Structure formats: structure tokens, C-alpha cells
Amino acid sequence: MSRILFHRHAPLAVVAALFLLPLALGNFGIGLMNDIGIGAMVALGLVMLTGVGGVTSFGQAAFVGIAAYSTAWLTAAQGLSPWLGLLFALATTGGAALVIGMLTLRLGSHYLPISTIAWGLSVPLVLSNIEALGSHTGMSNIVPIHIGGYSLASSGAMYYLIWGTLGLVYLFSSNLLRSRQGRAMRSLRGGNSLLASVGADGYHLRLKLFVYSALVAGLAGWLYAHNSRYVSPSTFDVHGSINYLLMAVVGGLLQLPGALIGSAIVILLRNTLQDVLPLLSSRGTQLEVIVFSLLFLLLLHRARAGVCGFALKLAAKYRRAPAPVAPPPRGDTQPLARRSQPAAGKTILSARNVTRRFGGLVAVNDVSFDIAAGEIVGLIGPNGAGKSTMFNLLTGAIGLSSGTVSFMDRDVTKLSQRDIAQLGMARTFQHVKLRPQMSLLDNVALGAHGRTRSGLLAAGLGLDKHEERQIFLEARTQLARIGLAGREHELAGALPLGTQRLLEIARALMGDPVMLVLDEPAAGLRHGEKQELAELLKQLRRDGVTIMIVEHDMDFVMKLVDRLVVMNFGSKLMEGDPAAVRRDAGVQAAYLGGDLAEEQSDNTKQAVCLGDAA
Ligand SMILES: Nc1ncnc2c1ncn2[C@@H]1O[C@H](COP(=O)(O)OP(=O)(O)OP(=O)(O)O)[C@@H](O)[C@H]1O
Predict the structure, then answer these.
(1) What is the CA(473)–ligand 1 centre distance, in A?
(2) Ligand 1: does its nearest atom lie under 6 Å from the Cβ of 358?
(3) Residue 289 class from Cβ within 10 Å (0-12 exposed, 13-18 middle, 19+ buried)?
(4) 399: helix, coil or strand?
(5) How far apart are CA 505 and CA 482, in angstroms?
(6) Residue to mutate (ligand 1; options 354, 383, 387, 554; most atoms within 8 A of CB)
(7) Which GO CC annotations does the UniProt entry carry (predicted)?
(8) Residue whose CA is closest, atom 8 of ligand 1?
(9) What is the distance, to the nearest Å, from the Cα of residue 212 to the centroid of all Cα atoms in its chain?
């Protein structure tokens, strides 16, 4: 009870303290608070972009600069209102971010951060060469903001605008992270394949985050220009960007409050150093850079998750249960709409002459088979037979070298993984792809991405609550289905591997699939858990879901499936019911070794199982 009261009242106490703070501060203190607020806003965008989205940006100050110069030019040179300046600043910043993002966000690994340095360097260079913008000296005499007839010329008045805006941005970002879009954004680090499997588009999510963080930097730039009433290009160079990144890292890149804490620490520390270092040496400014570099190194060694991450780790030691993040269920919540399942027996998937080459290696060679609605089909074969590659081809994770695949009466040979997922094919992965730092409920809820619609704006404004309740209602049902009811708020990373595989099945079921493609779901499960999994899969078959399964535990597979497709060396060896497969000499030879002598030791256990089952 006291914890609930704390969670409810702590934000109110912070708001009240911030409201009253100017009464206790002089002009200098208020000026510092304004700098902290503006810095925190840019750092907050970086927490979203770098911490959540995994895109490291060394060019965020450039967006602050584009916005600051836009409003400076419109108000000081054109004599228009700062409020028009705000719209113009957001338009130029958002437009620039969209173009830069489209040009750079497809770059992988270290190329993307390097590209951010490129535009981080070029934007201030361009600004300093435009005469109409004051060239190297910048622009002064920027008019103050007015609200009605009230001028925000004093730093005390700007304080409330800056911190009020920061509060709104914080609220919007916090709502966004807890939404359907936010769950997908928080999963960006899990890779495009995970996102595509739930019907989400990693590139567009990254682009949205990029533009969002740039718009937040743009808001900060607008406030900066009208707070300092002066802009110059050097403020917005790469040095400035590194400063913002430092704030986010010091505070904690993974939590929104980190932006605020980091900005306060960096600005207050810089201010103190500027007072103290000149007393120690005549080269105080150079010493300041060295002190900050050392601080950065120390942080990377000792507390990579920043102050916030450190505090959370400490708090977790004393916390009794993880804090709930999902809205609690309500009696009147309607379930999500379901798709109608195809009639039992209808062919829903046809693979024809499917071939996939990796250089000179033919991983899948001219394989054809059909799958009918309501079947459980096993895809088996010795290690390296091409099963996972076949799954990747069917689900669209990789492209075919030749052949065709049709699913639900559509040729899906050239469709993306995401489009195939939207048609009703859900999958799990041989190497589990979960978000370890997200709760079980959030991981499962992610699976409904393709079935639900709420966009970024609705999420940020908190207009998605009805859909969120529907998603979490179903996520709780799916969790209960795999035996994890009551553990919704635990972290997925804390589960044993076998249970993580079950969690992947629950996530796949959230897509309301026509067909479930399971890659070694029983690996890591104990005997009793395997029996429960078999029961779950049989129940799903009764519910009309078609299942294709790769599994090495022959005993498990033979008792579960209606039909088997056997692969060996990339080709289809045979197809038939379990009894026929057990009897087949070719299959026995493949599993016993035969010509595959080098695989014998690996497969002895499987071969024995095959024999046992027979
Ligand atoms: N991306 C890739 N690049 C190159 N070769 C690959 C790639 N993916 C798979 N292969 C090769 O294709 C062959 C089939 O691999 P695949 O993983 O599909 O077999 P599998 O039957 O699933 O094996 P296992 O049961 O051990 O998982 C192997 O020789 C593998 O090394």
C-alpha cells in the first residue's frame, strides 16, 4: 500500500518542488536550471534513440541548431512571432531528420554512428557559411516569447515554459514506451527478424524514433534560442552533441529519468569545474576536457547503465516484487478480433521445388511439400539437413534461390517476412529471440503488433488505453496457457531456456496465427514440461491452428505429429505418417549414419529414439 502511495505521489511531489524551486533560487540558479531543462530534453531524445532504439547519434546538437536557427531567422530577421518560429523550427528539424534518417538508417553496424558524425559536422559548417544567418558570429536580438500579453523575457518566466515543456515531452515519451509502438521500439535491439516475425517493420520504427528524437531536440533548440536570445554555430557542433550524449550516458541511457539526472550532473559539474580549475591552472579549459574524459572512462568501467541503472540495481535488491507496467485487467474489456481459420483439410501452404544456395553450398535442394489446415507436420532430419533454412524460407526470413511458396492462396515467394506474418504465419526461433529486460507480459504482448493499430501519436497522448487493455487481456490468457499465470511482471531474461521457448510460443499465438512454425520448441524442456507442451500443441490443433515443427526429440515428435517431412543433405528424403517414416530404410540409414559416418556420434541418440519409438 505504501508503495502504491509512493508511486502515485512521488511525481506530484517532484512537480510541486520544481514549481516552487525558483522562489529559492537567484537569477544565476534559475539560469542553470533552464540549461539543465534544455539539456535534459535533448538527452531525453537520446535515451529514446540510443538507449531504446540502439542508434548511437553524435549529431544531435545539429538538430538543436537547425531549430534554433530556424526560429532565430523567422523572428529576428523576418519579424514573425516565436510561435510561428516553433512551427517552422519543428518543420525544418523534422524534415531534415526524415531525409537524413532515410539516407543513413539502413546503414548497419558502425557505419551509422560514423554517418551521424558526418552530418553533425556539416550542419554547423553550413550554418556558419550562410550570411543571412550571421555566418560565424551567429544571430542576436532574438525576440522573447509572449503568451497572450505576458512576455517571457526573464529567465524566471522561461523556467516555467522550459520545465513545463520538458514535463510534457517526458509524459509523451513515457506513454509511448508503454504502448504497442513502444514495445516494438524497445525490441529493436532484438533484431529485424524478431520484429518482422510479429508484423513490425524495424526500419520504419527506427526512422520514427529518429524523427521523434530530432523533434524533441528541435523543441529544445527553439527554447534555447528564445532563452539565450542569441545563437552561434559553434554551440551546435559535434562537441555539443558529445556533451548531450554524455548527459544521457551519465544519467542512464535506458531510463527516461536518466536524461534529467545526467543533464543536472554534467551541467553542475561543468559549472563547478569552471569555477575551480582556473584556480589550479591557467589552462583551466583544457583541464575541464580532461576531467570530463576521465569521468566518461570511469563511468564506462564502473557503471555503464549510468546513475539511474545503478540506482535501479540497488533498489531491486530490496524490492519484494517487480513493479507492474501493464494496465490491470477490467471486466468490460472486449477480446481482440480474431481471424477466421481456413476449413480443416484445405491446403494452406505449398512449397514447390524450393532451393536455397549459400555460395557453393546447396542448403535446401528442390524440396516440395504441401500442408493442410489443422495438421501438425514435423520437419525432421539429421544436423545440417536444411530444416532451419527451410523454415527461414517459408517464413520469408531469407529469400529463395529458386522455386515458389504459396500460403493462404497467395504466392508469397517474394513477400517480406513481415507481410507473411501478417497473412497469419507465426514462428519461434531455433535461437530464442526474446527481450530479456522486458517483462513476460510485454514480451508476449509484442506478438499482437501486427493485429493492432495504435500509432505513435495516439500512444504518446494516452489514447490507446482501450486497445492496450485488449492486448494485455489476451497476453495474460496466453501466459496462463503456457503455465506462467501470476508471473506476468517477471523479466524474460530470468527464465530458464526451456521456459523461454514456451514464452516464444505464447508470443507467436498473440498474432492469432493460421499456421505456427516452431523451431525446436522442446529443446531444454524437462520430461513433464514436454508432455505439457505436447498437450498445448494438440489443443491448438483442436482450435484449428496448423503447426509445422522442427524437433530433434524423436519420441516427442513421433507421438505428436500427423505427418513428417524428412530432409537429408538439403533434399527431401521422404514424406509420410510417423509409422511409415519409422519403417523407411532410407530414414533409418540417414539417422544411423550409413553414408553419414561423420554424423554418427551426433545422431546416435536421435537414431536410438527413432528405433525406440518404433
Ligand atoms: N546463412 C548461412 N550461410 C551459409 N551457410 C548456411 C547459412 N545458414 C545455413 N547454412 C548451412 O546450410 C546447411 C543447413 O543448415 P540448417 O541450419 O538449415 O540445418 P538444420 O537441419 O536446421 O541443422 P540443425 O538441426 O543442426 O539446426 C548447413 O550446412 C549450414 O551450415
Answers:
(1) 38
(2) yes
(3) exposed
(4) coil
(5) 8
(6) 387
(7) plasma membrane
(8) 389
(9) 14
What pLDDT, on a 0 to 100 scale, did the predictor assign at position 277? Answer: 85
Lowest mean pLDDT among 300-314, 424-438, 453-467, 526-540: 300-314
Contact 300 CB / ligand 1 (< 6 Å) = no
Q: Is 406 exposed, middle or buried (0-12, 13-18, 19+ CB in 10 A)?
A: middle
Assigned domain for 473 exists: no
Q: What are phi and psi of 109, to 5 degrees?
A: 35, -130
Q: Is 111 in the pocket of ligand 1 (CB under 6 A)?
A: no
248 shares its domain with 355: no
Residues 226 and 371 grouped into a single domain: no
Q: Which amino acid is at 488?
A: E
List the beta strands (DSSP E) in 473-537.
515-519
CB distance 603 to ligand 1 below 6 Å: no
User: Is 361 a pocket residue for ligand 1 (Cβ < 6 Å)?
Assistant: yes
In a domain, 530, yes or no: yes
Q: How many domains does the chain have?
A: 2
254 & 362 share domain? no
Domain that holds residue 556: 346-424+513-597
393 close to ligand 1 (CB < 6 Angstrom)? no
CA distances to 249, 253, 267, 342, 558 from 263, rounded to whole Å, are 10, 12, 6, 56, 60
Same domain, 256 and 350: no
Same domain, 369 and 245: no
For ligand 1, atom 14, which residue shows the shortest CA distance? 386
Report ipTM for this prediction.
0.97
362 and 230 in a single domain? The answer is no
**What pairing do the DSSP bridges indicate for beta strands 515-519 and 425-427?**
parallel
User: pTM for the complete prediction?
Assistant: 0.89
> Residue 524 sits in a domain of what CATH number?
3.40.50.300
223-227, 403-407, 554-558: which range is least confident on average? 554-558
545 in the same domain as 400: yes
Residue 399 Cβ inside 6 Å of ligand 1? The answer reads no
pLDDT, tens digit (0-9, with 9 covering 90-100), for 58-95: 999 999 999 999 999 999 999 999 999 999 999 999 99
Distance 386 CA to ligand 1 centre (A): 6
Give domain status of residue 170, yes or no: yes
Write the pLDDT tens digit of every residue in 93-126.
999 999 999 998 888 768 888 888 998 999 999 9
> Would 327 be classed as within a structural domain?
no
